[in-house]
Amino acid sequence: MAVFAYVRVSTDRQADEGESLGQQERAIAGYAMMHGLAVDRVFVERGVSGSKPLADRPEGAKLLQAVNPCDVIITAKLDRMFRSAVDALNVGARFKAAGIALHMIDLGGDVTGNGISRLVFTILSAVAEAERDRIRERIRDVKRDQRARKRYLGGSVPFGFRLGGDGELVEHAEEQGAIREMRRMRAEGESLRSIAAVIVAAGHSLTHAGVAKVLAAREPIAQ
Length: 223
Hints:
By secondary structure, the protein is of the alpha/beta class. The chain has helices at 12-17, 21-34, 58-66, 78-81, 85-98, 115-148, 173-187, 192-201, 208-218; strands at residues 3-8, 41-45, 72-75, 101-104, 109-110, 161-163, 169-171. The chain is elongated.
């Protein structure tokens, strides 16, 4: 029987500073000692998001390859190993079928060992996934608000705008005029390529694909 530990931090800053990694390892070492176990190998996942399934993480994949029937895996918290309820339940079922014990310290121990612990594991896995969904919704809401207020969200500054000193997108008069001309020509049935040729001749660097993108941001583009 081999005993493996799995620890993870989700940001490079945490990985560089060791934030939470040391805490996780100390918690696992103490737990193992209390249960008469000796950890043979620690898998340290640095700067990897919990949104990735365990098998898609570098150290997670190594752990799944290394573990054998009757082995023990210890992790400090549910969300260090799983964020998706589907991934948690699939991996947990695989471990249970193979006789592999999965210990999660924050859930009180072996979550594959009996019906009650597995029920708790199932519920908390679903809660973790729901929390992740709420975080995504909050991020979408913030971006929607920022976009409505013409705040710069990163990437290329869109045609027709310049970036102001406070991070606000400011309309560029000449390019806004070019956008109005593009919309007029498109309404008259001109092709994207012909519109692009006119815009380039006027001194703007814009391909037909760029014209399509500009117009799509303003109004739907007919195919």
